[in-house]
Design a protein that fits this description.
Elements (H helix, E strand, L loop, with lengths): L1 H42 L5 H24 L7 H8 L3 H35 L14 H40 L1
Helix pairs in contact: 1-2, 2-5, 3-4, 4-5
Length: about 180
């Protein structure tokens, strides 16, 4: 069992590293495209429309991948102040809160995945092309939404497994203290 967990941890590390590199490159690429467009538009007074399209598409692409990376790093829009007030000084309550939040997130994501999958199937079956660049297939955005959500689900399952382990540990530790 230990050998498999080591391999699983290595796979997770590779996925996390790949997401981080891809998102970093995406941020740099998007910034350069927008900077080039600003220079062209305001300095040279010569707008190149494809820079707008490329900047938009790269931004959306890397933003969707960043959702998966952010989930892996446990970034979310939870109201941390409320959570801290609610579970302050109570490790079991904090663990229950984390597990509940993960389970709710996984449940909601499982509701969204079939819809995203249908959109992905439609995008594969009926490609949509850009208006300015007629040969550019924009259906990949719908395909990417599904795969990004799938990565988010994978990360939530891994984090949820860890949080459930911490909850079990907190309960065991709490029950030992009560026995004394």
């Amino acid at each position: 069992m230990v050998r498999h967990e080591g391999l699983w941890n290595q796979i997770q590390g590779v996925i996390k590293s790949a997401e981080m590199v891809i998102c970093g490159v995406g941020l740099l690429l998007t910034t350069l495209l927008i900077f080039a467009q600003v220079l062209n538009r305001y300095l040279f007074h010569f707008e190149i429309m494809i820079f707008n399209d490329l900047a938009l598409y790269t931004f959306v692409f890397f933003m969707l991948l960043a959702a998966a990376y952010t989930t892996w790093n446990e970034g979310h829009v939870a109201v941390d102040m409320f959570r801290e007030w609610l579970v302050e000084g109570r490790p079991i309550a904090a663990a229950v809160y984390r597990v509940s939040l993960r389970l709710l997130s996984i449940f909601i994501l499982c509701l969204l995945l079939p819809v995203a999958y249908k959109f992905m199937q439609r995008a594969i079956e009926y490609p949509e092309y850009g208006t300015l660049v007629r040969w550019f297939n924009t259906s990949w955005l719908q395909i990417l939404v599904f795969w990004s959500l799938l990565l988010v689900l994978l990360h939530l399952l891994v984090i949820g497994r860890r949080d459930i382990g911490q909850l079990i540990q907190a309960i065991r530790t709490g029950s030992r203290k009560e026995e004394r």
